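User: I'm putting together notes for a lab meeting next week and I want to include a structural view of one of the chains we've been expressing. I don't have a solved structure, so I'd like a prediction I can at least talk through. The sequence is below, exactly as it appears in our construct file.
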Amino acid sequence: MSEPRTRPTAPQAETSTPPPPAVGRRPTSPLLSPTSPVVAADGTLDSPGSSNVEWPAPHPETADAPRPAPGAPPPWLPPGRIVPVAGRGEFFVRHHVHPDADAPTVLLLHGWTASADLQFIAAYRALAESYSFVAIDHRGHGRGLRTLTEFALEDAADDAAAVVRALGIDSVIAVGYSMGGPISMFLARRHPDLVAGLVEQATALEWRATLRERLVWRLLPFVGFALRSWTQPKALRVAVERMITDSSELAPYRAWFIAETMRNDAASMVEAGRALSLYDARDWARELGVPAGSLVATEDRLVRPKKQRQLATALDAIVVEVEMDHLGSIERPDQFASATVELVDAVASARSTPAGASASPSDST
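Assistant: Thanks for the context. Below is the predicted structure for the 365-residue chain, given as structure tokens.
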């Protein structure tokens, strides 16, 4: 297996975008009526008509602009809706439909203890310029499905597949951040007809190869205790203030970040951590056979860059390295958004490139 094809760190805000291939076409779905409820950015139900037109709203840039109320969400959140899936339940998703019906659809799969909004808030607007996308809250996370069934990565992948089909989407490029990586890979393995490509971000083939890793997972009960503690809001406030500096565009929305994080179900977080501790794709990752990209967080202290590169090698992925820690999607939003779009562009281009041809001159080292 060849070494992963690495691109240099890309901190720039703009990237070139090749013409999107004709994948991810969104036919009309008989499962969603034109009057299906839409959840506005503030969490209220709204009609689906005008919500798609107004976003993304501009961020206030002048000193005279009114500051958002405490806890108010960023104004550029895409429309949200509840998607009912027969036999599974109701799922909250953010759904942006690009005006070009042939634009590929990106499926955004967030990480452990996060939600779609917390993970991908920085990338929504950049992706919306060229792609449709669906961002789902996994079961037990954010506004995700609540169930008495113990969390399993395979179930989360099946949830995502069911939502994609319910929306009438025939193929997606799956973007998985951290825990979303294993979910995206299970999605490609269990529903290969739906997955046109993969973009893995700050994730790995496994988290159990070393004794140290196996010992760390034994601390999971303390995670559950911390999430139930009365000190959680204060701890979150300190963490968010460190992650989001005063100069960040996200700074006015720190209270929203804290409130969104507290939506998570503590028991589900422990169960999801347990599922991650057992995950190991080393025996089958190479068999997925879809175009792939990998965002390697070079300063990541949670998922070691070495592990991220091992995954990229297994998938024969195009690699973009970004100087960020594991929470870099929040700490370095511009770099994260730029790298995400660059990798989705590359995977979309590879999907439409004949076998044996190079997707881009810069793909090889």
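A couple of points you could mention at the meeting. Confidence is low (pLDDT under 50) at residues 10-63, 355-365. The chain has one domain: 5-27+34-40+68-363.

User: Perfect, that's what I needed.
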